Amino acid sequence: MKYLIENCGCCGACVAVCSNKLLELNENEIIIREGCDNCGRCEIVCPLGAIIMEDSNEV
Ligand code: SF4
Ligand code: SF4
Fold it and tell me: Quick check: pTM over 0.85?
């Protein structure tokens, strides 16, 4: 996944849906830990298009 920090509104929606709990809301950005399996959940819930799955096989 690709994180576009300039689009992020720090709503925290992606943090809540990451099945691997890789995302953490910092003061003005999302911290992303290693281990992303490109499940695509965070992209789906992001209201601002700040997360893009660039190499996803998901439909
Ligand atoms: S694609 Fe899935 S595993 Fe990766 S950060 Fe988003 S919700 Fe977490
Ligand atoms: S869902 Fe989108 S706007 Fe909200 S914190 Fe995550 S990346 Fe930022």
Answer: yes
Q: Does any domain span residue 14?
A: yes
Return the CATH number at 43: 3.30.70.20
44 CB near ligand 2 (under 6 Å) = no
pLDDT digits (tens, 9 = 90+) for 1-59: 999 999 999 999 999 999 999 999 999 999 999 999 999 999 999 999 999 998 655 55
Nearest residue (CA) to ligand 1, atom 3: 36
Ligand 1 nearest atom to the CA of residue 53, by list position: 1
Choose one of 2, 3, 10, 18 to mutate for the ligand 2 pocket test, by most ligand atoms within 8 angstroms of C-beta.
Answer: 10
**Residue 56: count of CB within 10 angstroms of its CB:** 12
Rounded-to-integer distance, Cα 43 and Cα 13, Å? 10
